[in-house]
Amino acid sequence: MLGNCLENVRKTVPLVHNITNYVTVNDVANVLLACGGSPIMSDEPDDVSDITSICGGLNINIGTLNKRSIESMFIAGAKANELGHVVLLDPVGAGASALRTNTAIELMEKVKFDVIRGNISEIKTLALGSGTTKGVDADAADTVTEDNLDRMVAFAKSFAAKTRTIVAITGAIDLVADEGKCYVIRNGHPEMSKITGTGCQLSGVATAYAAANPNNKTEAVAAAVCVMGLAGEIGVAGMQAGEGNSSLRNRIIDAIYNMDAETLNKGAKYEVR
Amino acid sequence: MLGNCLENVRKTVPLVHNITNYVTVNDVANVLLACGGSPIMSDEPDDVSDITSICGGLNINIGTLNKRSIESMFIAGAKANELGHVVLLDPVGAGASALRTNTAIELMEKVKFDVIRGNISEIKTLALGSGTTKGVDADAADTVTEDNLDRMVAFAKSFAAKTRTIVAITGAIDLVADEGKCYVIRNGHPEMSKITGTGCQLSGVATAYAAANPNNKTEAVAAAVCVMGLAGEIGVAGMQAGEGNSSLRNRIIDAIYNMDAETLNKGAKYEVR
Amino acid sequence: MLGNCLENVRKTVPLVHNITNYVTVNDVANVLLACGGSPIMSDEPDDVSDITSICGGLNINIGTLNKRSIESMFIAGAKANELGHVVLLDPVGAGASALRTNTAIELMEKVKFDVIRGNISEIKTLALGSGTTKGVDADAADTVTEDNLDRMVAFAKSFAAKTRTIVAITGAIDLVADEGKCYVIRNGHPEMSKITGTGCQLSGVATAYAAANPNNKTEAVAAAVCVMGLAGEIGVAGMQAGEGNSSLRNRIIDAIYNMDAETLNKGAKYEVR
Questions:
Q1: What is the pLDDT of residues C161-199, one digit of tens each?
Q2: What is the ipTM of this complex?
Q3: Any chain A CB within 8 A of the CB of B26?
Q4: What predicted TM-score, i.e. pTM, was given to this entire model?
Q5: I need a labelling partner for C266 at 20 to 30 A (CA). Which of A66, B142, B210, C145 fits?
């Protein structure tokens, strides 16, 4: 049950090391606290090895990457792998610039990731690679819809198998897949796209969930995706006249803070394929 | 009409590349989403050329500048100029340090800006230059008031003509001028100065407005200034007992999120001189 | 009276230069405005000397430190010392990594600090040093409780004497000590630990308070600690159904914005030992 995954986070309070962008970093810290985890941020090459050593999970987010933080991603990733920590990649903007695409791909080559979370464009970019040769996955569509769902589920499973990770593709319909199964999740609300960083927040939460549920990480990541989506629904439902995206940002983090296993089990809308 | 400028932003959803300070960056991202634009942040020299290429506008803000981000400002500025994108300069702290003053002046020399937005001290610093020779503009006063309004309007037009930009000087009374005309705007509320970053937010919004209204950029920047000021008035009017600057920050972004053409046309308080 | 310290901040509006982490920097800026001060941020070596020169206080926070910002801390610290400005050290994560521990210790050797504010683990790390030789303070417990209060008060005074600073050790019970006396403060609420950066915020506020009260800095820092704790109590008391840590963050800053001398004098819970 997804609710168990939530309770394991609140019980074990996983410490998550975040190398993340400075746009949404404060929200990532607060949402990690809200979900029951504990955040620490560090992106200096001389600091990250020590910091990641005291943590249980590592969340690498390439938004606002720079040469210093990129170096730190590789150092922290290697250390986290050595220690058997959960490591997540959020390839923000892969496909939007050569540096972002190449950094994400090189990270995938040199760091063993447990989870990769992105939108369909980012994941498609990683599946195709940065080269000019287009692989079989090139026909992956640009959004996941009810119409192309079978094909996208197959794509997600195939990408997960090829990269030996759990892949979370988030959008109107979310997919969380490993080699063998795919959670198709229909929580969330379009209004969430009007807030900066709900994806970054989810990556932080998913790292905490995977770290606290080492024996069923796929289910844990699916639980994190449901938590975020359900919090979005609760947040939008609570909006008062005159409120907008800034209030909604607060409402979503508040909803995660108040989320319990029962609410999650009742509100999660998913099927496993 | 200013309302048309607003509607063009919501229709075209301009993607704005921001090289901005890490203090207010999250608010800049959320306010860009609130006004109908879309934000992306990048300040790594190896990344900014690709990122700015996919955008419609570039917002350069020199708060918390560093050697890396300064290099990125010049690279991104050159690329945006090459592509004919709207480029805005927010000279945060020009006059407060030699590095900030000199960086702003060098940017003005090497990058063609469409808009420069700052407070009177910052704009005065740019008008006077960093050297010891004081130009004719040296008598520009330190605040724009009803008493010195004629002189300040002339200063704004003269600065706009000399720099071939639209200049927005914001304060108790806001001025938005090009060579030929000056919008004198009386929206806003003093309480806005108790929130960090309303100026940075306005620069993001103004970039989106100018990008979405390429044929009447001066009016578009004036519209953005009215939107921000009017949102401040709506925010302050909505404050409940016990609320302070943190709630007001949310209320202002929410008000921008809910602003429509009718509200703007009714609430905008300006004259053109 | 603590209320006088508050009023001196509102009267003199101290400008505080913050070299601080990018996680909580926006909240630090807004809380400085809320308490009556004025924030400016800069962490570029070529910029910090000019910026700190125009300020009244310097707040050095080593969270998310990097080589560039570390260099800036030493430059700004030297300049602030030269000008007789108040300087505060927030040793975020001292003890969690060698870089953080060593940076904090080297800062203490080369910069004259007026105030050091941290949690007990951080202060204990500074007291013990980074070497392997454990000093007499090694027996300092890991939390301040009613049971070990006498011993912790003695530790705080001894650390203050040895370092010639005012030390603020914050936790469930807060201690603010100089060589001769120790404020034992029982304001605050456990829920505050669910928000990122209340410690960073306090360091900003404490810098403003010390800068505005040069003749009784220990009392001023104690006042700042009471203000923060009392704002936490007011914030928690005001929470509505469905609210969580994101709303609480807003409520605390709002409470500081609305805090006056009378509220502080009535609500402060402290004794001097």
A1: 999 999 999 999 999 999 999 999 999 999 999 999 999
A2: 0.95
A3: yes
A4: 0.96
A5: C145
